[in-house]
Amino acid sequence: MMEQLIPVLGWAAGMALIGAVGFGLLGLVSGTDETATIAPMTLLVILLGVPPVGVFAFFMASISAKHITHAVPTTLLGIPGDTMAAPLLRDAQLLRELGVPHIALRKAISGGAISALIAVPLAVLFAWVLTPFADAIGAVAGWIFLGAAILIAVLSKSRWAAVFALVPFVMLVLGLNALTLSLLDRTLTVSFFLGIATGPLIFDLFMAASPIGRKTLERKGKRQFELAADTRTWKGKMPSPFKVLDRRQVAMTAGAASISSATFVFSPVAMTVLMGEVFGSRIKGSYQRLTTQMSVKNGTTEATYIAETLIPLIAIGLPLSPMAASVAQPLFNAPPVYTIDVETGATNNLHDMLEPWQFLVFGLFAVILALLITYPFAMTQAHRAAKWIMQSVSHEAIVGAFAGLLMVICLYEGGVVALFVTLTVGLVGGMLNKLFAVHTGVQFMGYYVAVLSVPGIIALFA
């Protein structure tokens, strides 16, 4: 028994450590979108043959670590660390103006740490409640994806524009699928996924290559940032998150994490804003309200990402949430390793390879390991790290590295044809994202509508 358990624990610990360190550092770099970074790296880990436990631990540690350190540039520099940090920006800026950005940072990361520990067991519990209905849901998967796509689109910023944008996007996927089938005698999956995930990046690269588009990206001189002072407000080595937050803030953060863990079908950004407003409106004092909103909002970013991954992954095996349909997409569908049958909706992914208790144990293990690494680092080294990142790390170099990774994976799946499919989907998807706010979650659901729902609709009217 122990001989079998030791390699599993080794993979879980090793991959969780890699994810925590890698994405803990990447969270310090502003503008590093989760879908364009965590998703491709998770896909690469899967394609390299890492066992399921290692893949799961890597992913859980990555999202937990990034949503701790993304608060550093958000609070100390006034620029969002990633997409999910954007709702924290206004409160962080107001606290900067009050002269307490260090308090904003510590409230945010303490709320994230508490919420991550709450979200894992609650998500497993909610998944267990849904599990008896998994077969019924899988039987009508095509229609559920159609309904979920419309729901997620309506709940996005673009609302009905996103719903209507699904039609040409689905048609694009169908056309490219037909083309690849005629050229390669098979359809592609990973290339579509990469195109959607890195769409905004691909769109910006095309804009930079155009003389007209380049003008919109040009900057006059170097960007100037004001780095807040480094102030330590505690005695001893390291305070507990439960001491950084007062009792009321702990209760509100826990309440927001519990609610957002259950409502897994809604947009993580929308839930972050909503939870911050709902709980913040109950507090009268400006300072207390702002610091509470920092802890509640960053806690919600952790809870939604964890719950929206675990609930559909454990209960159903299909990516039926905005998070599952974007950042966590490789855990559900990463051919040829993890697959979803486009005809029947049958799955062969982490849902089938891990037991519920493994999701709970290794999920908590990965989250705790990530927190043990990133929480002390953010509490004590945030100022020094933010200064070094802004002075020494080239954002363009990071973009170039992920562009290179994109090409390697595409060529692996289907050669030049796959690369052009990714560029096409990325250009169109990036345009929809940048110009019309049709986010990647909507686009991923559109892909599943094309491969799962449309065949059912055609068969119905044939």
UniProtKB/TrEMBL annotation:
Bilayer-spanning residue ranges: 6-29, 41-65, 109-130, 136-155, 162-184, 190-213, 250-271, 357-378, 399-432, 444-461
Superkingdom, natural source: Bacteria
Family annotation (InterPro entries): DUF112_TM
Annotated DUF112 domain residues: 15-435
Pfam families associated with the record: TctA
Keyword line: Membrane, Transmembrane, Transmembrane helix
Keyword Plastid found: no
Signal peptide bounds: none
Native source species: Brachybacterium paraconglomeratum
Name of the protein: DUF112 domain-containing protein
